[in-house]
Design a protein that fits this description.
Blueprint: H1 5-9, H2 14-24, H3 34-37, E1 50-51, E2 56-57, H4 65-79, H5 83-97, H6 100-112, H7 116-129, H8 134-146, H9 150-164, H10 170-180, H11 185-197, H12 203-215, H13 219-232, H14 237-249, H15 253-266, H16 271-283, H17 287-300, H18 305-317, H19 321-333, H20 338-351, H21 355-363, H22 371-384, H23 388-396, H24 403-419, H25 423-436, H26 441-453, H27 457-470, H28 475-488, H29 492-505, H30 510-522, H31 526-539, H32 543-555, H33 559-572, H34 577-586
Helix pairs in contact: 4-5, 5-6, 6-7, 7-8, 8-9, 9-10, 9-11, 10-11, 10-12, 11-12, 12-13, 13-14, 14-15, 15-16, 16-17, 17-18, 18-19, 19-20, 20-21, 21-22, 22-23, 23-24, 24-25, 24-26, 25-26, 26-27, 27-28, 28-29, 28-30, 29-30, 30-31, 30-32, 31-32, 32-33, 32-34
Length: 588
């Protein structure tokens, strides 16, 4: 029978082909890839080769038709999902040939189908054939654990520790990582505990134990383990950070920040530790102290673009605009995050009311996560400048990939048109959007507000009631419907019911308190209305609330109080049209 290697290349797996080639190739050098043996393969019946991937001398194997047939049967079985047959063929060949690649394949087949008995059987053979192979030791350890015999796994885990021990403790973390893949983490934690018992003075052992305990949800054991590790090696930053994670599990942010502050004082030159501390300060909203810590890091890591960005954004948050400009400009000059730098510089110029400079920065953003937001900001600036066509063009030029992004663009375009009093066009935008997303609550609310401005009260009421049907606890919709009915119709009792429900959901919301005051005024309950409106105005000096309160006071005969309320509001918002209109109506 004449065999053609090229013919078999089309149907056998890379592993099988590699075994065939290295098992029968007569070559004086090591075989690293299929390309190296292309054109040099013979059908010599016996040869010895070295497989670099296994770092083991391969056995002498007779490449017989029966061997090739079994390999093909095994591969075909696997391709068709007949894993038991594939395993038996590979395992049988491995027993006969003692080729480590074949027994490795058999082991992985059994692991894949969760056949723990066969996985252990194959792993034992693999270790017997290739005892120095760490993958084999890992496989047999896992097989023993999954078969309910963790004690037998310990010998092999110890072997992994010895082989991987290069002074940095990575062997223990490798074992912890291996054990963390098991389903019963509480069970394997006891295995790790026995290893630690044999290495009581190893800080790496205790750290690995704490890591695995935290994964298993045994927070107290994790805490005890990491404290022991830090006692043995106090300046181990990875252990310090693990202690931080254990503290975070408790939810006590103050304790986390205090712990990191202490460690930073102990090891002031550890930049990575100080960076972690600074980030935790940001999470705790202690921006001033975070800014100070990032400044220290900047001295330790001069020119680091991420630190420059952090300083720039914190300066923005702290309203230190000149410092923000300096840090962000330095970040841009590194050339590493130009788009991000341009975006935040654009935001800074907006804060400075320098819209021309802001537009220039936003225009220079051409990629990255801030591209869409840059175009949105350009659109909003153009809208404020009165160029609505340009604003809409910016929005329409965007190609968004998600419904959430598309929804946001619809809402922004509609809001731009509403602010420009182009309510009919805004309505068209919301109608188009609702054709795509008919039950989106934000769109329904936006269209209801546009409909109210167009005196389409039936549509406004229908949309708001649809929102309430979708979400009966939507305080905004309840409040808007109640206020609209009180302000634009004579259905005051019905309005009172909706606003009462909204107020029960958000009792300290100034807008809902204002609505309740207005409903009570419509119902003729002036005293109660004044009480509600004063409560709303104490929370926020809103010109619309001031207009309402002034009207109720005036109608109640308390005209001097009304004038004083209006005067105070005008000092804050001298050009508010609603306030001026109400004053013109009552003060002749």
């Amino acid at each position: 029978m004449t065999l053609s290697i090229k013919k078999f290349c089309l149907v056998v797996s890379p592993l099988v082909l590699s075994w065939i080639l290295t098992g029968c190739a007569v070559s004086p050098h090591q075989v690293n890839s299929l390309a190296e043996v292309s054109g040099s393969v013979t059908t010599s019946s016996k040869a010895r080769s070295v497989d670099v991937a296994y770092n083991v001398e391969l056995p002498l194997v007779a490449l017989t038709p029966n061997t090739l047939y079994k390999l093909l049967v095994a591969e075909t079985a696997l391709q068709r999902g007949h894993y038991a047959l594939g395993f038996s063929q590979y395992f049988g060949l491995a027993e006969r040939t003692r080729d480590p690649r074949l027994v490795a394949k058999a082991t992985r087949i059994a692991i894949f189908v969760r056949d723990h008995k066969r996985a252990l059987q194959a792993a034992k053979l693999w270790v017997d054939i290739d005892p120095t192979n760490l993958a084999a030791r890992q496989a047999i350890s896992a097989a023993y654990i999954r078969s309910g015999n963790p004690d037998a796994a310990q010998e092999h885990l110890e072997y992994i520790l010895v082989k991987e021990d290069d002074g940095d403790g990575q062997g223990f973390m490798l074992v912890a990582s291996l054990l963390s893949r098991e389903q019963s983490l509480q069970g394997v934690l006891s295995v790790m505990g026995r290893l630690v018992d044999a290495h009581q003075e190893s800080y790496s052992a205790w750290q690995a134990y704490a890591h695995l305990a935290l994964r298993a949800g045994a927070v107290e054991k994790a805490d005890a383990g990491i404290k022991r590790s830090l006692h043995l090696e106090p300046n181990n930053i990875s252990a310090i950070l693990l202690q931080m994670r254990i503290l975070q599990r408790s939810g006590d942010r103050v304790a986390v920040v205090e712990y990191l502050a202490q460690r930073v004082d102990d090891f002031p030159e550890m930049s990575a530790l100080r960076l972690t501390y600074a980030r935790q300060l940001v999470d705790a909203r202690d921006y001033d102290e975070a800014f100070k810590q990032y400044q220290v890091v900047m001295k330790q890591l001069p020119g680091d673009v991420d630190v420059l960005f952090a300083l720039g954004l914190l300066a923005l948050q702290l309203d230190r605009q000149d410092r923000a400009f300096d840090f962000l400009s330095q970040a841009k000059e590194t050339g590493l995050r130009n788009d991000d730098a341009r975006f935040y510089l654009g935001q800074l110029e907006e804060l400075r009311d320098n819209e021309a400079a802001a537009l220039e920065h936003y225009s220079d953003v051409v990629a990255g996560n801030n591209l869409i937001e840059s175009r949105v900001r350009q659109a909003m600036i153009k809208a404020r400048q009165g160029d609505l066509d340009a604003a809409q063009n910016y929005l329409h030029s965007l190609r968004v990939n998600t419904p959430t992004q598309r929804l946001r663009l619809f809402l922004i375009e509609g809001e731009i048109l509403r602010n420009a009093a182009r309510h009919q066009e805004a309505m068209a935008v919301f109608n188009r959007a609702l054709n795509e997303m008919p039950d989106d609550i934000q769109l329904l609310y936006a269209r209801a507000m546009a409909a109210e401005r167009l005196d389409q009260l039936d549509l406004a009421e229908r949309d708001l009631k649809r929102i309430i049907a979708l979400d009966e606890k939507n305080a905004d919709a309840l409040n808007a419907l109640g206020y609209t009915l009180a302000d634009r119709t004579d259905r005051y009792q019905e309005a009172h019911g909706y606003v009462k429900r909204a107020l029960a959901l958000r009792p300290n919301d100034h807008a809902i308190l204002d609505s309740m005051g207005w409903v009570l005024y419509r119902l003729g309950k002036y005293h109660d209305a004044i009480k509600m409106l004063r409560q709303s105005l104490e929370i926020r000096l809103d010109p619309e609330v001031a207009a309402h309160l002034g009207e109720v006071l005036w109608v109640s005969g308390e005209r001097e109080d009304a004038r004083e309320i209006w005067r105070q509001a005008l000092e804050v918002t001298p050009d508010d049209r609603r306030l001026l209109n109400i004053m013109e109506r009552f003060i002749k």
